[in-house]
Amino acid sequence: MRVAILAHEKFPGDAKTAVGVLRYSDHDVVAVLDRSRAGERVQDHLPDVQDAPIVEGMADAPACDALLIGIAPIGGGFEESWRPDVRVAIERGCDVIAGLHALLTDDEEFVELAADHDVELHDVREPPDDLTVAAGTAGDVDAHVVLTVGTDCSTGKMTGVFELRDAARERGLDAAVVPTGQTGIMITGWGIAIDRVISDFAAGATERLVEQAGDHDVLFVEGQGAIAHPAYSGVTAALLHGGQPDSLVCCHVAGRDRVGGYEAFEIPDHGWYASLYESMADPISGATVDAGLLNTRTLNRSEANTALDAYGSKLGVPVTDPVRDEIGPVLDAVLPENLRERN
Amino acid sequence: MRVAILAHEKFPGDAKTAVGVLRYSDHDVVAVLDRSRAGERVQDHLPDVQDAPIVEGMADAPACDALLIGIAPIGGGFEESWRPDVRVAIERGCDVIAGLHALLTDDEEFVELAADHDVELHDVREPPDDLTVAAGTAGDVDAHVVLTVGTDCSTGKMTGVFELRDAARERGLDAAVVPTGQTGIMITGWGIAIDRVISDFAAGATERLVEQAGDHDVLFVEGQGAIAHPAYSGVTAALLHGGQPDSLVCCHVAGRDRVGGYEAFEIPDHGWYASLYESMADPISGATVDAGLLNTRTLNRSEANTALDAYGSKLGVPVTDPVRDEIGPVLDAVLPENLRERN
Fold first, then answer.
1. In Å, what is the CA distance from A172 to each residue of A96, A249, A282, B72, B145?
2. Contact (Cβ atoms closer than 8 angstroms) between residue B57 and residue B84
3. What is the pLDDT of residues A194-246, one digit of tens each?
């Protein structure tokens, strides 16, 4: 599928979805829309992902099949400044794919325009309508289940599962990501946005995803939020208990010592935090924190090494920066012996 | 308000909502509908709540303003055998109030009939449509906030908050319950069913409730689920972090050693479980488990005393059976000194 990705004024640093699609999906990205960087190219910023021109708006994008909304503001609203691009996309015959709380299919103008031009509006964050409570059975799947968890939102839990998947596949393992948020769903084409599921069914939705993918060798379940986050811990708990993982990978951003957007709250000691995850998992799946991922983007090499050493020593398990360094040791740490031996 | 309460084949043991309304609300209950007990009276079963006749169906109920659905099957569906009673209620000009996942307002027959007879259908479990993510500010309210938590669902968390409220009011305190489930909402006439809120907003909904009621002396927030429950921990986490309580009261049913409906899962050691709640609360509100409530209904007096001693010694705080024994020591344990001194 040929896609354009909307990321106005946020590319690349604050455009997690856009960057995820560029890096991990099979889509052919024909353009990134960012009016603050028009004329630049993706590879000016991200040398290791597929390249594409950055354009002012949809009118300047090459022919494509769909426009992806590649940024998600806090709260998940639709920014009115994006409206002209969505309008042009529909008029050009492109589907529109978004992962916002505010639904494209609730927008009267877009619904009418989409009908006129025979294109589809996909709200990937909208969950199926036949979800139920968890049965407590995700632990019965054959696959080895690994969940990324973290000390905060936006700590690399989504990046982690795709990097682990790709590394496992390179070793010949049958590995899959279980996507639980809009970016993962946009990248893989399946999944459920757990944060959009009603609380009672959030663990059940996670269980359904794990069971659907349960015949792979290993599943990397995309984590969300943080288990002691002031706003999103409920989502994290539902993933942890609904997905019944065997192994946890704890993600952190080097230097972040307060919860993003909630600066009144300190991020606890990382070793303590990992133990909290293990205590929470203990009565249900008994998962342990077997590895850590650290985002060291803002540090130079020497600082990054120091931060990685400190983080690894707090957690007492192998850690790495999955973007900057080898992920092999972390993959080894989360795989059971029978899957490690295949290498 | 004069109400009839539907509780077919479940009264009183499996009719938590019906019994809660009889015991704690200001409504005048004119009849309980239970076809398996028609001709009996409420006080034959529950001597300490308001009395009412138990009748075969709505046609036999005295005049009233509303029919409350007072039972909630697992899954929250509408039982078709209730349909004739709801139909008769509407035809008699009664509003219908339900807390089911299945909405009255999604039932075409009821919607049409209600319009014809000018009555209202209230789905109390349906959350407001303007909820947002938590801001992390519930801890700023003036009120002292107490949350009931537990080792499982149906451990007395709802009963606990109403008993604590009533005991606090007897001491002259300005106390209120913050209802987070259908029964509490039916009893008090306000609240949000947190389990029905989308995961991302569940902490935010809790925060809104606490802030709305924040000018009381003390708030007793109705807990839900359990923090290590295989299906409902997400709801519990949202209450714990969204509500930012000062104090926790841990509820358990004597003799229950496996999670109800999920017998593959043992309930962990109670002292360990209380510590898990405290660890989860620590980075956000720092709440501690200051008291415990134990449902000893199935035990004789001597067994109950033994169970209470054992539970108190595991938790290391005052415990009581709030239905059978005095709740005063537990109230003292959760109140701050300035509110205790008012007594």
1. 35, 21, 31, 50, 54
2. yes
3. 999 999 999 999 999 999 999 999 999 999 999 999 999 999 999 999 999 99
Q: Please tell me the distance in Å from B181's CA to the nearest CA on chain A.
A: 12
The CA distance from A96 to A311, in Å, is: 41
- Structure tokens given for A326: 């080898």
* Chain B residue with the nearest C-alpha to that of A258: B283
| Neighboring chain B residues of A204 at a CB cutoff of 8 Å | 231
3 state DSSP class of B54: strand
Identify the structural domains of chain B with CATH numbers, from first to last: 2-123 (3.40.50.720), 138-340 (3.40.50.300)
Tokens of A136: 């407590």
> Which of A151, A233, A239, A278 to mutate to probe the B interface, most B CBs <10 Å?
A233
The DSSP element (H or E) to which B330 belongs, if any, is helix B328-334
Q: How many contacts, defined by CB atoms under 8 Å, are there between A and B? A: 150
Strand partners, A30: none
pLDDT of residue B77: 87
Q: Which of B194, B198, B257, B285 to mutate to test the interface with A (most CBs of A within 10 A)?
A: B198
The answer to whether B84 touches B56, Cβ cutoff 8 Å, is no
- Mean model confidence pLDDT for chain B: 96
Interface contact A262-B136, CB threshold 8 A: yes
Pair A31, A55: CB distance under 8 Å: yes
Q: What was the pLDDT predicted at B46? A: 95
Whether residue B75 is predicted with pLDDT greater than 80 in this model: the reply is no
Collapsing DSSP states into helix, strand and coil, what is residue A337? helix
Chain B residue at shortest CA distance from A236? B234
CA A77 to chain centre: 18
Rounded Cα distance between B296 and A113, Å, is 63
Q: What ipTM, to 2 d.p.?
A: 0.90
Cα–Cα separations (whole angstroms), residue A31 to A10, A72, A124, A210, B176: 15, 18, 21, 33, 56
Q: Is B233 on the interface with A (CB under 8 A)?
A: yes
The number of residues in chain A equals: 343
Q: Does A235 touch chain B (CB under 8 A)?
A: yes
Give pLDDT < 70 ranges for chain A. Answer: 341-343
- φ/ψ of residue A41, rounded to 5: -130, 155
Q: Do B200 and A195 touch (CB under 8 A)?
A: yes
Res B281 pLDDT > 90? yes
User: B127: nearest CA in chain A?
Assistant: A198
Nearest to A286 by CA among A257, A320, A247, A256: A247
Query: How far does B341 lie from chain A, in Å, by closest CA?
Result: 31
**Scanning every residue of chain A, which has its alpha carbon at the shortest distance from the alpha carbon of B206?**
A231
Contact present, A334 and A250 (Cβ < 8 Å): no
A241: nearest CB among B75, B233, B241:
B233
Burial B96-125 (b: 16+ CB within 10 A, else e): bbbbbbebbeebeebeebbeeeebebbbbb
For residue B29, give the H/E element and its range: strand B28-33
pLDDT, tens only, B13-65: 999 889 999 999 989 999 999 999 999 999 999 999 999 999 999 999 999 99
